[in-house]
Sequence to fold (268 residues):
Amino acid sequence: MKAFKNKGLIWDNLYNFSLYYEVIGVLKNAIKYKSEYLELTIGMFLEELIGKVVDMQTMYETEKFEEAVKERTLRLQRSIEITIQAIAAMVEVRDPYSVGHQKRVGDLAMAIASQMGLSELRLEGIKMAGSVHDLGKIHVPVEILSKPGKLSQIEFDIIKTHPQVGFDLLKHIEFPWPIAQMVLQHHEMMDGSGYPQGLKGEKIMLEARILAVADVVEAMSSHRPYRPALGIEKALGKINKNKGRLYDHEVVDACLKIFEQGYRLPED
Fold:
């Protein structure tokens, strides 16, 4: 029984009665022949049986491994969400008028992306980016963020630095998505008139084009220190009017569609 040396007995793992009867059947048939054949037959059968049990054990261990990976992934995702929430809170502490703005932009952006058929993974990344897209405003003086009147050109130029500042703060964090790039590009316009890089058309990543539409719709629908809320109808009218020029036409169409289907911006 050379083939069976150093394998070790595994009878404790044989729970299926059909395996037991299979063993008995082999023994009954083999006993009609020489003892050498009996030993060889039993050895060959046990080799095959070991293979079956090892395969079952491998399947079990694989399932346990997959469960462990899934659990660890969920913990990691939760850690990322908590990190994102903490980052978002940093902005809202300094800019009380924007409380809930980033969360609503993230929710709307994800709804638009879903309507466009993007994958679940990309949906999650867009939501996360929306939740921190104004992080760079922590670099903007509170007096500018809460100014009740029209901003001067110098003040507006300071405001326009926030995508770059947000990118610089996020670029070294290893998210599963290009969050920093989405934040950097969310004020870029299709015709190249946006900031900070003046990107144009397809050079703007799709996620950023979605954020741009979600951002303007939410901002126009909400109260700001320099004006009252303008309402969702005016917001949708603006993106529709500028479809293809400032905003991606497919993104705008998807946004209009979800509101037609009953979507509403979440409450604070």
